[in-house]
Amino acid sequence: MRNAFVRAVTKAAAADDRIMLLTGDVGYKVFDDFAAGFPSRFLNMGVSEANMVSTAAGLALEGMRPFTYSIVPFATVRCLEQIRNDVCNMELPVVITGVGAGFAYGENGPTHHGVDDVAALRAMPGMTVVGPADPREAEQAVSALIDNARPAYLRLGRAGEPVLPGTDAPFVLGRPKVLVEGAGVAVLACGGIASEALQAARILESDGVRALVLSVHTVKPITGLADMLRAREVRSVLTVEEHGPAGGLFEAVCAHLSVERDAPRIRGLHAPDAFFHVCGSRKALLEMLRLDTPSIVAAVKEALADQR
Amino acid sequence: MVAGAQVAHVASALSCVEILVSLYFGHARVFPREPSLPERDRIILSKGHAAAALYACLAERGFFPTEMLERFACNGSLLGEHPHFGDVPGVECTSGFLGHGLGIGIGMALAMRMAGSKSSVYVVLSDGECNEGSTWEAALWAPAHGLSSVTAIIDFNGLQACGKSTEITCLEPLAGKWAAFGWEALEVDGHDMCAITDALRAPRGEKPRAIVARTVKGKGVSFMEHNLEWHYRPPSPQDLAKALAELGGASG
After folding, report:
1. In Å, how far is A46's CA from the nearest CA of chain B?
2. For residue A61, which residues of chain B lie inside 8 Å, CB to CB?
3. Is the pTM of the predicted complex or chain greater than 0.90?
4. ipTM above 0.90, yes or no
5. What are the strands, taking DSSP E only, across A24-151?
6. In this structure, which CATH number among 3.40.50.970, 3.40.50.920, 3.30.565.10, 3.40.50.300 belongs to the domain B2-247?
7. Residues of A in contact with B120 (CB under 8 A)
8. pLDDT digits (tens, 9 = 90+) for A116-151
9. What is the domain range of residue A213?
10. A90 vs B: CB within 8 A
11. Are residues A101 and A57 in the same domain?
């Protein structure tokens, strides 16, 4: 997903000389092409995330379109006050880019886990929050956020995520994307964990359950979700996210659907409200925290049992 | 203004008056009738709590009518206690949250350099802002990238919100710190407009410039000078009359 992001930004920079890339000394060799092609528009800001965001705001005030880049916690909560006052308050077209959503940096421990960033950034007034499901959505998100020209947070996975079926459909900011058609029950995923949701849907299908799978690539704002669910007579919704219970996809979906008459019942699979100290790869942590494919299958079956 | 609105920070505003006047009425290129003209110099009041001094300069310089000053910090006014970008002609960016102005100024200077602009960026900081790590993040970065169009002016009045600046942190030698970070550091009497202007005009090399302006908090009003209470206390009508008599002014 990271490489797709870099490709997309490099391509955008070739077409638009306002595009800039600022890194907080993260991404060794990853930006070589960008830096070679557009040396004056690539800045290593050092391990100084606060100054990176303020500088991006200054650039944007002068008409540039900067992307800032670091590992999720450092790109976001480390410099949240700069994001709040410099970017959001002045409504500037800066894209805060975090690499390593959820447990992508699993082995690095909880300091590097990105499980509270969506909550923090969703709370920022006027902020758009996007978590692509795969490399294709990451590329689509880059151009959508450039066109949007507003404060945005782009929450990337790391590297090596598979390209998912269904993500080639048009990307509209705010509007969830159908990855697998279904009815009655829906799995709503944000970020790379959508691939677990898709595998779960395949298993469920072999058990005779046609679960709708959506990539809720935009966690803020969410548009049109209620209509999509109503059209498929969805009575149970399961949200799946690599994020804590507060302020992430689950709460965003609850807020969106709460105003609906006969809203579906919503359950959430998410990380615990605690720092998770056990070391492990992303895959291992997803298993331990019951965010993996079998856990999604089980949760969907539980939801269906409740419907009866 | 501050007496009318019954708000704080009058002493913080008084310490940077000569700095702002030296910029807006002297050295800096500003275009009050066309406040967004690309050729202008950018002036950032990073110590946004001194907005009263900034607004007074902008109004007197012709950016907006001086009558607007009477509405400072009043209900429904766009002249808030801290300046807000987009609401007030001449305000280059929102400020008041300390330690952001220098980074924003660096971004502006970078963009202008790419655009081939000859404009300069002036950032007015408080000594309290030199407690903020982000100020020093920016201070470390700018010299490494030859941003000689940036000038930081530190209003070193020696008093921050809850005490003496040099006792709360190891601020001295302040000019020495900027020099050690790679800035061309100068020290001036921050109430001597000739000295400030000379420091602004001095020939420039490849380094950004830091001007440590030694100032007096509450300058010009005997009972406010060096008195921490006036970081907070709104002047009463009696205080205002006494202060204006000392300053020789006629209106609030």
Report:
1. 8
2. 85, 92-93, 104, 107-108, 111
3. yes
4. yes
5. 42-44, 65-71, 95-99, 128-130
6. 3.40.50.970
7. none
8. 999 999 999 999 999 999 999 999 999 999 999 999
9. 177-307
10. yes
11. yes
